[in-house]
Amino acid sequence: MMSLKEVDKIEITTVIDNSIDLLMAGGPNLRRSGLSPGDWLGRKSLIAEHGFSAFVRASTADHTEAMLFDAGLSENGTAHNLDVLEIKSSDIHAIVLSHGHADHTTGLVGMFDRLGKRRMPLLLHPDAFLQRKVVLPDRHEIALPPPDRSVLVREGIEVIEQRAPSFLLGGMLLVSGQIHRSTDFETGFSIHYAKIADQWQADPLIHDDQAAILNLRGQGLVILTGCGHAGVINTVRHAQTVTGVNRVHAIIGGLHLTGALFEPRIAPTVAALKEIAPTIIVPGHCTGWRAIYAIARELPDAFIPSSTGTTLTMTAQAAA
Fold first, then answer.
1. Burial classification of residue 153, based on how many CB atoms lie within 10 Å of its CB (0-12 exposed, 13-18 middle, 19 or more buried)
2. Domains of the chain and CATH, by start
3. Residue 115 above 70 pLDDT?
4. Cα-Cα-Cα-Cα dihedral of 214, 216, 221, 227, to 10°?
5. Which residues, listed in sequence order, are joined to residue 222 by a DSSP beta bridge?
6. Model-level pTM?
């Protein structure tokens, strides 16, 4: 068990997601990047794409640090949205890649110039560098190119490969490392392959899939996923086991429940989520509309719809 430092405030900004709704309502702790009077045509627009990236800021009473979780699909999408959201590269103290698929990594290319040569630490699982592909039932193939290690090193990135859980941001954030699989229904991606020892092999479990975990004082775990290839229930259980904290405050990110291969998992996933009973759940990216609808129906008080440019602020529970 790893002792994850409690934090007093967490802000998570969705820098890139699959959709954006400029008219979506915010709330007391939920800021949407919507329309302001007179600026609809006068400001740069945010970009939505099939990808994911989030900016995470964690604070204690006397200390604040921040990191970037994933980097989206297009080379310049994340960099563009960071500019629109007025998030400076100097605010980013580390980068974590949830896994090696291109819709979470390619946006790093557009950030090299602004990061400079300051040895930005980038944490990922070693398998994130594997060549991958999806082989469809009709035998057509979709390539999933990984990040290029040599390019990262050349651009001054400090590449840190870890299979085990590891701390960042002064112990305020835990990267899950390789997630233990414990459910009987989250069985992986059966048509996914990786090139290992120069041979294509079945790679259904996508072992490099990992989450970011924070511990909000008095509220519980805040768990951020990229695609959630390990399965969101496996991910939550792993986070609980590794940290020793059972209460879950928030689950945010992609849950990969879209398409014919994954939709049979929606019902058992939602049933398990109801048992976990998070205060907040923000399903995005690859969750899919059927799963999002089911989550919204079954966990209406917890559900928050995702939209690119949204900032969710979570604060510690006041002492009794």
1. exposed
2. 6-314 (3.60.15.10)
3. yes
4. -50
5. 214, 250
6. 0.96
